[in-house]
Design brief:
The complex is a heterodimer. Chain A is α/β, with parallel strands linked by helices. Helix content of chain A is about 35%, strand content about 25%. Chain A contains 14 helices and 22 strands. In chain A, the strands form 5 sheets. A 5-stranded mixed barrel of chain A has the order 1-2-3-4-6. In chain A, a hairpin with a 2-residue loop joins strand 3 and strand 4. Chain A is globular and about 65 Å long. Chain A starts with a strand and ends with a helix. By secondary structure, chain B is an alpha+beta fold. In chain B, the strands form 5 sheets. In chain B, strands 9, 12, 15, 16, 17, 18 and 19 form a 7-stranded mixed β-sheet that branches. Chain B has a 4-stranded antiparallel β-sheet with strand order 1-8-6-3, with no helix packed on it. In chain B, helix 4 runs parallel beside helix 5, helix 8 packs across helix 9 and helix 8 packs across helix 11. Chain B is elongated and about 95 Å long. Classes of the chains: A alpha/beta, B alpha+beta. The interface between A and B is large, with 78 and 75 residues.
Chain lengths: ~475, ~450
């Protein structure tokens, strides 16, 4: 006979969606239980996603800087060498500490965390087989909840006929933990995961080839920004093969042999490792969704929800990578808060018009709002202002003059519709752009805010003024 | 027809550029506005777009350094040749791989980014659920509220949010739609009037210009914040007070004589010229002391009397009228008043005016005379109860002691809130100002 427990909310998944939902629910006075099938909290983001990749991106950038950029600053050093083992250990340490922080956070809010795989029994009951609680094994457990929040996230998609083998044909998880620098890393997919990991290994000395079946990298990105990023990465040594698809890949004798097709011509590529980074798929398998009446979309695997994140079963909610929209940790967290507040009767929502996204290459790319292509496709009269970092004093001091900021406004109302940055510190600068979108600022108001001198954000001021010139001209 | 494609001017002192990359290939059909190639100079990296439609014939290859103005390609317009449909469609269709779930998941934004010709924009059907959310809330509260506030039919709004939901930004874009199309709009942009929910935006309008309401030369511009504020306040003054205006006229002879007589001496002593405004401010302060109702406000069911004299002076600015306030005008001498006005005029001109400069006035003086107005009825500056209007000084024949003489005369207008100030008080107040200005020595003697 299974042990049973009654709660207000059962959260399935302890990633940036699930743990934030649990904490918010606890703050609102709900009795919460959080289920996680992995031994460590934090989900993909903390364990095998955002955090470890950023740790490696920062470490590899430090290595690259020491090797090729310090001399320009008059800092001379001999015998710079790579200790990949230390680099990986540091990454693991960062991950461990942050996971521990999540555990403490949940503890502090007196949220019961149960390790085990969850399966929905009906709209209000979740079964956990082989539940572990605080390390000690327990039997099957049945949780009765007024509401259930699905926050199970996503997993990498493999290519048909090209399954992951964990050593040579791998997904991002393994590519974050190679024991040695591959001589030639081949990456299928020119999305942000492919080019971020490509950057890491390129900096550490690997030859990197990115195969993309579209004619450009990072679909959905503002075209001007995307093209600038592609040029920057090409200069760094990444090789892009566009309009190219992989027909076959065979792992043998420690190598991966690829047959690729571009413009009806076949070609062979031999690599040491093959990273498949063609996208991610919502993780719904094994949850028993269909049985309780929640049917994921056949094409996308996403769980359909309404504006309050309610699925077709009113007591079951879903957020984050499981539902439509970009797969971003901060989007999941924002939806978590909105969904839980909605359950508690507080009107709450996520502003998708001001959702930032970042690519942590060098230069970084950060965007919020509409792209130029989207604005033009919608027939919106627009004004565009750009300003290059080469005009920024701070950028020159740091020797990081690559890139520019781009502000898109409505030509009639001057309201800012999109903010796009490629360049140093873009990931932190975008916050200002998000705030501008959140507050519906006009470019005039945005330009009026004083930025400290010399800083990168001065480029915003100049770009906003460039927009004004257009507006005045247009009116 | 051939269009030459040239290396554009990129700035002073830049004479040549590196043609870094061709984005289109020789023989491609390109459309106006599409990016053709990239140039780099030591200062900028610039994407150059096609200035017309046509088949691209490249004359200068990638990697060449070319002078500004060089023809690097020609576009040959070939009416017989249609753009190749294969190029218009996303090339991913050529691949055997299915689109990955994430790409598919980005459906709504992808669709927004590249609508295929003939496909209507994604529009939510009215009052139906989309099947994906059988009974739920289909529109987020912020979008719903904005739509309700502004009377927007959500069914007509193009949706860009996850799951095909309308976002607040979508509603805002819909509201901004009737704005006049700007030159930067795509050339195939359609007149706002024909943008129906099912109309294809990318198709040129078939509505003849003569039938379009936009064919007449009008322009639409959003009201500036300051203009909106002015509009609100003026309307509020009209609606919330019982305004009445009383008139009088003042003989400016004495003031003019005084000013002429002491012009040089005054300027030497104080560094400012002696204007007429200081006389009126002094006269107004004296009158306000005599008739305190004019210096009072109505607040709810109470009358708030002010035992201080903060006089607003209306100053015309580029973006609209502003009324900075001279604080404790009763404690200031003529020179200090003139100086305060000069300071405010400079602040207005240099856009340095602060909110605190505009707050706290208890009475206002507006001088329409500087623009040549002979007579006007000023509008109250709420919550104040009185405003004095000055006008142009005009030499007019007047009868004095049985004789017709020519005098520099000015009409005065006092608009007052009749709820608080009786006619007798208002008329006496204005008469007091007239007496003091006609006999400035009264101000000195405080009688």
């Amino acid at each position: 006979m299974a042990e049973s427990e009654k709660v207000d909310l059962c959260v399935i998944g302890a990633g940036p969606g699930g743990y934030v939902a649990s904490v918010r629910a606890a703050q609102l006075g709900l009795k919460v239980v959080c289920l996680e099938k992995r031994p460590r909290l934090g989900g993909v983001c903390l364990n095998i996603g955002c955090i470890p990749s950023k740790a490696l991106l920062d470490s590899s950038e430090a290595y690259h800087t020491a090797r090729s950029r310090l001399a320009a600053h008059g800092v001379l050093s001999d015998g710079i060498a790579l200790d990949l083992r230390t680099m990986m250990a540091r990454k693991n340490q960062v991950v461990r500490e942050l996971c521990e922080n999540v555990r403490k956070l949940l503890e502090r809010h007196r949220i019961r965390v149960i390790q085990g795989s969850a399966r929905l029994v009906d709209g209000n009951r979740v079964a956990v087989a082989e539940a572990k609680d605080g390390g000690s094994k327990k039997g099957p457990l049945l949780i009765e909840a007024r509401s259930i929040l699905l926050a199970t996230g996503s997993e990498p998609v493999s290519l048909p006929g090209l399954p992951f083998d964990g050593s040579h044909i791998v997904c991002s998880t393994e590519a974050l933990a190679f024991a040695s620098v591959p001589g030639h890393l081949v990456i299928i997919g020119g999305g942000y995961i492919g080019i971020e990991l490509g950057s890491v290994w390129n900096r550490l000395g690997a030859q990197v080839t990115v195969i993309e079946q579209l004619p450009a990298i990072t679909p959905g990105l503002d075209g001007q920004i995307g093209r600038a990023l592609e040029r920057a990465l090409t200069r760094q040594g990444l090789v892009f093969r566009f309009n190219t698809r992989v027909a076959k890949a065979v792992a043998a004798a420690g190598k991966v042999q690829l047959t690729v097709v571009a413009e009806d011509r076949e070609a062979q590529i031999v690599g040491d490792r093959l990273l498949v980074a063609i996208g991610r798929r919502p993780l719904t398998q094994g949850l028993g969704l269909e049985e309780v009446g929640v049917v994921p979309d056949a094409a996308t695997g996403q769980v359909p929800v309404d504006a309050t994140y309610r699925t077709s079963v009113p007591s079951i909610y879903a957020i984050g990578d499981l539902v439509a929209g970009p797969m971003l940790a901060h989007k999941a967290s924002a939806e978590a808060v909105a969904a839980v507040e909605g359950m508690a009767g507080i009107e709450s929502e996520v502003n998708y018009d001001a959702m930032p996204s970042v690519i942590y290459t060098n230069p970084e790319v950060a965007c919020a709002g509409l792209t130029e292509e989207a604005v033009r496709a919608r027939g919106v009269p627009c004004c565009i202002g750009t300003y290059p970092f080469s005009g920024s004093g701070r950028a020159r001091c740091m020797g990081e003059t690559e890139g520019f900021v781009k502000i898109i406004t409505h030509a009639g109302s001057d309201r800012i519709l999109g903010v796009h940055i490629i360049g140093p510190c873009a990931s932190d600068m975008i916050g200002e752009g998000v705030l501008a979108l959140e507050c519906n600022l006009t470019s005039q108001e945005f330009a009026r805010a004083v930025r400290a001198h010399p800083t990168f954000s001065e480029a915003f001021q100049e770009a906003a003024l460039a927009v004004r010139q257009c507006s005045i001209y247009a009116s | 027809m051939k269009t030459e494609v040239k290396i554009p001017e990129v700035g002073e002192s830049v004479t040549e550029a590196l043609l870094t990359q061709w984005y289109r290939r020789d023989g491609d059909f390109v459309r106006k506005g599409e990016i053709l190639f990239l140039i780099e100079t030591d200062k900028v990296t610039l994407e150059v777009v096609a200035e017309g439609d046509g088949v691209l014939k490249i004359l200068v290859p990638e990697g060449a350094t070319v002078a500004v103005g060089t023809v690097v390609a020609v576009l040959e317009a070939d009416d017989a040749r249609e753009p190749m449909p294969a190029k218009a469609a996303p090339e991913r269709t050529a691949g055997v791989l299915p689109p990955s779930p994430v790409e598919a998941a980005e459906g709504p934004s992808e669709a927004a980014a590249q609508p295929s010709v003939g496909m209507p924009p994604k529009v939510r059907p009215p009052d139906t659920t989309d099947g994906r959310s059988p009974e739920g809330v289909t529109v987020a509260p912020a979008a719903l509220r904005l739509a309700a506030e502004r009377g927007v039919d959500l069914a007509r709004v193009e949706a860009s949010g996850p799951g095909g939901r309308v976002t607040r930004g979508d509603v805002l874009l819909f509201l901004e739609q009737p704005a006049k199309p700007m030159p930067t709009a795509p050339p195939e942009g359609v007149l706002a009037g024909s943008k129906g929910p099912t109309g294809d935006r990318r198709q040129p309008s078939t509505v003849p210009d003569a039938l379009s309401p936009l064919a007449e030369p009008t322009t639409r511009q959003p009201m500036s914040r300051i203009r909106q504020r002015i509009a609100e306040r003026l309307l509020a003054a009209r609606q919330n007070t019982a305004m009445l205006t009383t008139f009088n006229e003042v003989d400016m002879s004495s003031v003019q004589t005084l000013r002429a007589r002491f012009r040089e001496a005054y300027r030497t002593r104080y560094g400012v010229s002696l204007g007429i405004m200081s006389f009126f401010i002094k006269a107004a302060v004296a009158a306000l002391k005599e008739y305190p109702a004019v210096n009072s406000f109505i607040e709810g069911h109470e009358i708030v009397s002010h035992h201080y004299y903060h006089l607003g002076v209306a100053i015309g600015a580029e973006r609209g009228l502003v009324v900075p306030v001279i604080r404790h005008a009763d404690r200031l001498g003529f020179a200090a008043i003139e100086q305060a006005i000069l300071d405010y005029v400079a602040k207005v001109r240099e856009n340095r005016l602060e909110l605190s400069d505009l707050e706290g006035g208890t009475f206002t003086i507006s001088n329409g005379g500087v623009y040549g107005s002979l007579l006007s009825t000023p509008i109250l500056n709420p919550p104040q109860s009185g405003i004095l209007g000055l006008h142009r000084i005009q030499e007019r024949p007047v009868a004095i002691a049985g004789e017709v003489v020519i005098r520099p005369m000015m009409y005065l207008a006092l608009t007052y809130d009749h709820r608080l100030i009786d006619g007798k008080e208002a008329v006496s107040f204005l008469k007091s100002i007239r007496d003091n200005v006609e006999n400035p020595e009264r101000l000195m003697l405080e009688i």
